[in-house]
Batch of 3 targets.
Target 1
Amino acid sequence: MSSVPASESAADLTGRIRRKLQRQHFMHLIGADLTRIEPGRVQAELALEQRHQQQRGFAHGGLVATMADLVAGFAAVTLVPDDHGMVTVELKTSYLHPGIGERLVATGWVLKAGRRLHFCEAEVRCFGGQNPAEGLLIAKATATMAVIEPTP
């Protein structure tokens, strides 16, 4: 497997990841956007709207898991070459508090990058309303991502 050039600038990395995000149609549908891109670490935000709520007015659990999956996956993508892809093999999400507020912020990072699998973690925080300034941690996730090599 070829590797990501050590000389890849922050601007090049951001551009490469943003190009890949354009093909993430579901992320556009829910209104998520990447707000921080670093090697092995990604952050995404989403303005919470009524369409994101379950029947009690909390952020839907599927939305929270999706945000965790998004940031864990793209954190892994930052560590592979542009012609490689990444898919989720396993995602475990633990819900700690209801998502009540104005904005979700998810942060994902790579614990171990391997040749075929990347092991990642993610946190999802809710901001606004009664939440503290640093946001309320509403979910933690672990994810295993598989590297997809280009076909010859």
Note: The beta strands are 33-38, 41-47, 85-95, 103-113, 117-127, 136-148.
Target 2
Amino acid sequence: MQTSAINTPHLTTYSPTFSVESRNGRPDFELAAALQKVAPQQQAKAQKTATDFEAMFLNSMFSQMTSGLKGDGPFGSTPGTGVWRSMLTEQYSKNFANAGGVGVARDVYRTLIIQQAKTTLRTA
């Protein structure tokens, strides 16, 4: 039996970060069906929202990781390093999220798209 012969219509990758494959490597048919019902503009908006949410989550995590550091240098406890440290962790979190993050955005995106598809069915 050939696995490449499986017919999976309309399963496409919609971003380098997001795909319709679930964590176990199998197609997520629920997400694929929902993507057919949601406009591309709404998909892009949901993707940005999910990535921004993950960036906020990572920023909170990085802030907690660096809050207890003492000493000299950029992570020390000198005056002004608090502001510098917050800007640095914000940029770290945005870069991590845009590079694929830790997987939070993928699940948030999936949830947003499925909810929008259900809302589209109710209003149609």
Note: The chain has four helices and no strands.
Target 3
Amino acid sequence: MNTVNKTATITATVATALILSACQSTPSSPVIQRANSIYETTGIADSKVKAQQNALDSAKNTCRSKQVIIVDDKVAYNGILDERTGRMVGQASAVIGSIFGTGSPNLSRDDDYEYKINFRCQ
């Protein structure tokens, strides 16, 4: 293989990887239609705000040009420690890590928070 073909192959491979990773970066939550034009979805993430945003993004995709009206919502925390203890441990480890220059361990997982919403499109 000559240099031009190798360069073209590498460029195509990198471009494909970038395109596929861009598609993967926006998590999608399944949307279930219930009675009376009510929909349900759950956003899952490592923080409450991200979980809420994931659920709202799925709702907006479902409603398209219509407005999302949230009928009911519920946040659940599923971390390994309770929410308050997890924050204190995270802050303490960040301080210790900055003192010793070791960084801090990340105790959060991608599914620590669930934000379940029931919504309709109007």
Note: The longest helix spans residues 3-24.
